[in-house]
Amino acid sequence: MIELTGLRKVYASPDGDVVALDGIDLHVERGTVHGIVGRSGAGKSTLIRCLTGLERPTSGTVRVDGVTISDLAENKLRAARRRTGMVFQHVNLLDSRTIAANVAYPLEVAGVRRHERAARVAELLDLVGLGDRAGAYPAQLSGGQKQRVGIARALATEPGVLLCDEPTSALDGETTRQILGLVRDLRDRLGITVVVITHEPAVVRDVCDHVTLLEHGRVVQTGALAQVVTAVGSPLSRALVPVPDLPPGDRRALVEAVFSTDAVPTSVAFAAVAALGDDVEVASATVEPLGGVRVGRLIVDAPTGRVPEVVERLRAAGLDPLAVPTATDAGREVA
Length: 335
Fold this sequence. Notes:
Oligomer: single chain
GO molecular function, one term: ATP binding
Protein name: D-methionine transport system ATP-binding protein
Strand order of the largest sheet: 6-7-8-3-9-10
Keywords: Amino-acid transport, ATP-binding, Cell membrane, Membrane, Nucleotide-binding, Translocase, Transport
Domain ABC transporter: 2-241
Pfam families: ABC_tran
């Protein structure tokens, strides 16, 4: 559905060239929710502008639904953009228009006839749960309701791709969960492909099937959610399944293991630790559903001299353990 090949974007500045994207290769499968994460300055905003054709890449190609966006002339690019819906952090609704009129705006621009617009708007507002608020104005809506209007507006021209740029950053926790649930439900019902740009690992955990981490304009890690979180010690694994809090006290040596409970039942993981004796113990543990599987993380506390034995025993049980020097190192944030 979305294919980026050798994507590079360089901006000229008085102090020299600034490389925003540095050879991005990325594939987003049709019908998936794909998260793009990274710190500020990682290249997320430039990437989304290249996806919509608002920025021309310095080199490389951008293909969306079989169309090479990066090669289109401006008149054809405008038509191609209608196949991509955009949802923004700040919804930017037109305050002087009703909710229905806001949703209808892209249809007006596209030249859709009035009676067809009205039918489509009613359908979309019902779809996002605001069928009874068509005559309201933006000032009368909550933040979550405004974002629902933004989603309905983005879907007006029946796009195949929905790009969501920090869609929940301005919302509280419960509203965020509702909006992410709506996005996933719309993906399931409409079969659209969704790309979510975010700096929040919790958003990726709640809604995404696949995830890509950008750093300094490059892809550092990418893959299915269950794949990346079980890659013990990797940046996305640490960010998406945070290291559990460790109890107070002196630490000896720590061994970290991440595993899918489909492959290794929790009882097997704990039994492997118990078999090592009383001087080896589970210091902390967590299990949570991610990407359709339950993912566990263990932090095992052991005498320094027994670390190789602990690693080997956990590996024999089907886990992928990694020795870490300190609790602080185990808890680094990366996104």
